[in-house]
Specification:
Layout lengths: L17 H6 L2 H11 L4 H8 L2 H4 L3 H10 L3 H26 L5 E3 L6 H8 L12 E7 L3 H8 L4 E6 L3 H6 L6 H7 L4 E5 L14 H13 L6 E9 L6 H17 L1 H11 L4 H7 L1 H19 L2 E13 L7 E12 L16 H12 L4 E2 H11 L3 H13 L5
């Protein structure tokens, strides 16, 4: 699982940096272009990680990394994620008297963590004031080494994939990570589908998400899950996708309220029709339905749900969609009318959750939203770039 770090800009913004590209070395340009090909990002990083220190100027590379941080993602980060976390933080302080405990895939510049530090939202270690209650993951050793030198330090910074840390009991970080749960916010900011074709239907990513729900079931108050994934039909393992679609269709058949909500929201009577007309919408809807099912299995109920998306325009390959799901959960109430046996007893709120996840599945097009804002605030894009630049400096040694 990799974090969404070095992303292509919208072509409309490319001219802003043309003079910088002319002045930059060909080697830096070549490396950044490689990193920008998100589909091959992991392989390219592994092939070139020695160059980061040996052949390239680190300050110039950091400047170029900032240049390629995408505007749409940061708008979601600063306007959607931050608002959700602020709302949770007030509740956390009232109940526990502390700050937010945060699980993330931060990337080198830790922009999401920087936002929370700037707003004084994170829980601070009572023993070490230079340590925040954050669990972060970076699989690439060279990036991990650079991140480890930043301040404040994390409660846990793991040099491994997040799937391995969550699901492999032999992983060096498995027990330590388990001891840090539950978190107030779990941010799984991925750049792949949930079921890559080479992993089989029940992928490591989906197993990791299930492990998150299992460990978060002990949370006594509201908590948030941010899930980002590549919404490209051809990326998904076909058997897994068919099972997700069948799962959604079964609920439509079993619950009249879900059937009616689906028809009202999507103007289709069944999943097959929606898949044929708008497959990405169908995938996104099926994913959130699966998330709700896993939450219910651990007696976790949905409080609110929102969805955002935007297009990516990589050079040389077709454009694709990034989907960002924002869910807030709480512990579900349990009826005394039925004794739990092999299966989880159905509660009234469970059907209500199914209806809610369909009714509220209204993906906001971030590109259109920014364009709309720019009519009244034409400097919005410059403001976002400036904030990114400022956040990149937080914690630099």
């Amino acid at each position: 699982m990799t974090t969404e770090i070095s992303a292509e800009q919208n072509p409309d913004d490319a001219n802003d940096h043309s003079s910088d590209r002319v002045e930059s070395s060909h080697k830096v340009d070549a490396l950044i272009e490689q990193l920008s090909q998100e589909k091959q990002q992991d392989e390219k990083v592994l092939e070139s990680h020695d160059l980061l220190f040996d052949e390239l100027n680190a300050d110039k590379l950091r400047e170029r990394e900032r240049e390629y941080t995408d505007i749409e993602k940061h708008w979601v980060r600063s306007k959607v994620w931050l608002k959700t976390i602020k709302d949770l933080a007030q509740n956390v302080r009232e109940i526990h008297g502390r700050g937010i405990r945060y699980f993330t895939l931060p990337g080198f510049h830790r922009l999401d963590v920087g936002l929370l530090l700037r707003e004084n939202l994170l829980d601070i270690d009572p023993i070490d004031s230079n340590c925040v209650y954050v669990a972060g993951f970076e699989a690439d050793p060279s990036k991990f080494g650079r991140m480890a030198g930043r301040s404040p330090k994390f409660k846990l910074l793991a040099n491994c994939s997040v799937e391995s840390a969550l699901t492999d009991a032999k992983n060096d970080y498995y027990s330590e990570l388990q001891s840090l749960f539950p978190f107030d916010v779990v941010n799984l900011d991925l750049t792949t589908s949930l079921t890559p074709q080479h992993e089989g239907p029940y992928s490591k990513t989906m197993q990791a998400i299930n492990a998150v729900f299992k460990r978060q079931s002990e949370h006594s108050a509201k908590w948030a899950l941010f899930l980002t994934f590549r919404n490209v039909h051809s990326d998904w393992e076909e058997i897994a996708l068919a099972q997700l679609f069948d799962n959604l269709q079964k609920n439509i058949g079993d619950y009249p309220a879900v059937r009616d909500a689906f028809l009202e929201r999507h103007e289709e009577h069944n999943v097959a029709n929606l898949k044929q007309k708008r497959v990405e919408t169908c995938i996104s809807q099926a994913v959130v339905k699966w998330l709700i099912d896993r939450a219910h299995h651990f007696n976790i109920q949905l409080e609110s749900y929102h969805c955002y998306q935007y297009q990516r325009y990589p050079k040389g390959v077709p454009k694709y969609t990034i989907c960002k799901q924002v869910l807030v959960f709480s512990r579900g109430t349990v009826s005394v009318a039925e004794v739990p046996t092999k299966s989880t007893p159905r509660e009234t709120w469970m059907e209500q959750n199914l209806v809610k996840c369909i009714q509220q599945h209204k993906p906001v097009d971030v590109e259109e939203k920014l364009l709309e804002i720019s009519y009244n605030v034409p400097e919005i894009f410059d403001q976002i770039r400036e904030e990114i630049t400022q956040l990149c400096t937080i914690g630099e040694g």
